[in-house]
Every structure is written in structure tokens, then in C-alpha cells.
Amino acid sequence: MAIVYQHIRKDTNQIFYIGIGKTSKRAFTTKGRNKLWNNIVKKTNYNIEIIYDNLSWEDACLKEKELISKYGRIDLKTGILTNMTDGGDGLSNMSEEFKINMSKIKLGKHSPRKGIKLSEETKQKLRQYNLGKKLSEETKRKISESNIGKNHLSEESKKLIGLKNSIKLKGRKLSEEHKRKMSQSRIGHIISEETRKKISETNKLTKNKKKFEESL
Fold first, then answer.
1. Per mean pLDDT, which range of 1-5, 12-16, 71-75, 177-181 is the poorest?
2. Domain chopping of the chain, boundaries
3. If 59 and its partner were Cys, which of 12, 55, 137, 199 is the partner (CB 3.0–4.6 Å)?
4. CA–CA distance from 208 to each of 8, 19, 142, 171, 188 (Å)?
5. Cβ atoms within 10 A of the Cβ of 71, count?
6. Looking at residue 114, what is its pLDDT?
């Protein structure tokens, strides 16, 4: 179920934001708000009103779009709302600031959000935003190169890697016997510069993915 809510300035009694959420908690939080919203809240207190309750997420999205269209947006000079999209799926007619912020969250560079949990509404919009983005040819090439050679490990190497990982998961240190076997498996095995480069690129991709997941 979902809700649709509005924020109303106390100094002018004017609506300045329309939003949706999975619960009423979203209407009361100040986290994840945009610059225009924060600028108004710095000047005046505001009232919170739940307009619609117990809606399906799809119906809540439709109502949000209707109301944003009705009142208009400040950033587009069409009305009075601080919303930076046309509502609904969160992707329609995004402001430049909204696009930049979404990109920073994706890359893990949005420092004001470090240590702050994103709302479910923002997570959903971020997932939809990323699903709609096409990978560049450069990104595709790097991903492809990082996968080259992954399936050509020897059976012995696969066993040793599996053994090492299983022991790490159990929180135990490697025994001397295991260390000896792993050391022997590396004797005479020279890693080419090309392989080193691929390993480095794979590690970078893994770190970026981890940062993105942690930001969510």
C-alpha cells in the first residue's frame, strides 16, 4: 500500500511539495530532499497532510503525477512545487539537478548522503533510473575484458580457490598444509601483464559495485 502527501508552507499557507511513500513515515522525513525543498524549509516551518491513503503503488504514482501537473514546478517555471520530476516513476521530465544527484549516488560520490540511508521511494527511483540507462561502449568493453579468461582456470586452481573461500567464510585461518598446497600451485606460474591488467580492472569494477550497493 502507498500514500500521497503534501507539504504546506506556514508563512503563506501554500503547497510547495507533493510526494508519495510506502508508509506515512516518508511524509515526515527530511532526508533525501532536494535543494529547492531545503531552501524553503530554512525560511519557514511547514504542515504535513496525507491526501490519499491505502492506495496501490501504481495509483499513488498516478495521483502524484496529476497533482504535480496541477500545481506546476518551480524549476520549470510552471508553478509552485519544489518537485524536480513530474512524479510517478520518478523519471519523467527530470531536472538537471536531479540527474546530477542520481549520478553521484550511483558513483558513490554524493558526500552529503554518506552514512545516510536512502528512503524506499528514493531507492525505487534510483533502480528505475539505472535500469533505463544504456551502458556506454567503453563500459561494455571493460566488462567484456574483465570476463575474458575467467573460465580457463585449471581444476587444481579451482579446488584451491574454493577451499580458500570456504575456509574464509567459516572465519578460520588456513592451516600450514593448505598454505603449502597453495604455495606449490603458484610455483612456475607467471602472471602475464595482460592478466594483471584484467585482474586490476575486475577489482575496480567490484569496488565500484560495492560502493553503489552500500549507498543504497
1. 177-181
2. 2-131, 137-215
3. 55
4. 39, 31, 13, 25, 33
5. 19
6. 46
